[in-house]
Amino acid sequence: MLRELDIRNFAIIDALTVSFTDGLTVLTGETGAGKSIIIDAVHLLAGGRGSQEFIRHGAKKAEIEGLFSLDNEKHPVFRKLDEFGINSSDGDILLRRELNDKGKNVCRINGKLVTISILREVGAALIDIHGQHETQELMDEKQHVYLLDQFAGKSIAKAKESYLNTYDKYLKLKREFASYNENEQQIAQKIDLLTFQLREIEAAELVAGEEEELQQERKRLQNFNKIYESVSAAHEAIQGESKGLDWVGSAMSELEHAASVDEAFSSQSETLSSAFYQLQDVSTEIKRVIDDMEFDPERLNEIEQRLTLLQSLKRKYGASVEDMLLYYETQVDELDRLINRDQRLQLDQEKLKELTEDLRVEAEELTILRKKASKQLGNAIMEQLQALHMGKASFEVNFSSLPSGRFDRNGRDVIAFYISTNLGEPLKPLTKVASGGELSRMMLALKTIFSKHQGITSIIFDEVDTGVSGRVAQAIAEKIAAISVHSQVLCISHLPQVAAMADQHLFIEKKVEKQRTVTAVHELDGQERTEEMSRMLSGAEITELTLQHAEELLTLARDRKLTMR
């Protein structure tokens, strides 16, 4: 849920910090007080389109920051954060966005700088903003199949996973199959090029690890004189007359004599004896190496030529000998595919035919499961519409299919939600429903159902109750409250019935401070809330009667909420 919202220099807001609670928060106030500006700020925080016009006059930049807290460790937003390398171990998510007067955006999530597209993707998993005339997920027919699958839940999840695995194989084979359609001239040119490349690599007789060995050998040959002088000097120091080995031998003899008299020196005597014989062995080995050492300028020239050849091949076929060998293997397969394309084409045709049949069967299974779920969804929505005093309405999920032989990631189903709001009227796509009041109720019916399945943390309704009154207004109020049981709901409303159902009531007003208009937020409780409810009921002067009516409305709302939770 959205815990806290901090806004600086945004429209007519100078500096504003608002804390929110669980459940339903209702924002009320006079028209033009700034209620929608707060929602606009949240929309920008979720990755909405920004504009320099949002920056408060005279300021250099606008700043918006929102703190979200999630108790569900398996919420989909955490997977998204992991994908983008953003830490969220404590369950808190801090979104921040800055708009400056140069038109630049700075976006951060938990302090990490991100692009606007990442902010939008994360924001979409946290916030769903719905205004009466705003196109959003429920009004996008392309999303209806996903919503139906969400509603179906586990009953369709396994079948869809199996279908997607088959579909990915199908797409891969289709791409390979399409490559066979290249013209003969292009194929012949490819065969010639690959044949030349493979012969060039074969002629080089590459051996894994040889480049490193050649570089080491070249280093030895280039430094032959230095190595020879050093090794000779080492041998002379050990083996030369009156040099190291002689002195160690004398020390060994003396220590052996001491040990024969006093056993306390036995250990040192044995150690020195071992060292003497080891030095003898080292001296002998060094002498053998010196005798074998011979500088071969021709070998150095061969190494230089070989390394030059390897460097030339690396520029064409890979960064190392191992990479070139791997390239060789893949191109051998590609050449075989091109040369034997007729046989492979036949094999791929058979595989593609099998996969197409598998897809058809699995897509039909998805259709059967969706049609079953659609009936359950239809019944659930009709139940909601009945409660919203749209008992004459009818709803159904319309199924059509992609053209024969075509599939997409959802199978072959093209799904759209259809509704008729009046008895005797034909069912029409949800997107064609024109009446504002009917559209609001339809949206609330869908939201009441889908809010349980979508996992959205915060749902925002911006005056969705416009154009309704009386018992419909009360029904809408109860539906919004019902949605808030599963998701935090922020709602701008002019209806006292909606305000009465609020768990938190925020009053938005405009003030003049230092010759500037600013927006202020005040949380209402007790008598203040009763008076605001009275004002909403009367629309003008507060009277004893409207105060009594407000008290009654609040009491009824409290009783009604107890039955919901």
Description of the molecule:
Belongs to the RecN family. It holds the Pfam family SMC_N. May be involved in recombinational repair of damaged DNA. With 565 residues, the protein is of the alpha/beta class. The protein folds into two domains: 216 residues; 212 residues, no CATH class. Helix content is 57%, strand content 18%. The strands form three sheets. A six-stranded antiparallel beta sheet has the order 2-1-4-5-6-7, covered by helices on one side. The protein has a six-stranded mixed beta sheet with strand order 8-12-13-3-14-15. A hairpin with a 4-residue loop joins strand 5 and strand 6. Helix 4 crosses helix 13, helix 9 runs antiparallel to helix 10 and helix 14 packs parallel to helix 15. The longest helix is centred in the middle third of the chain and has 47 residues. The radius of gyration is 40 Å and the shape is elongated.
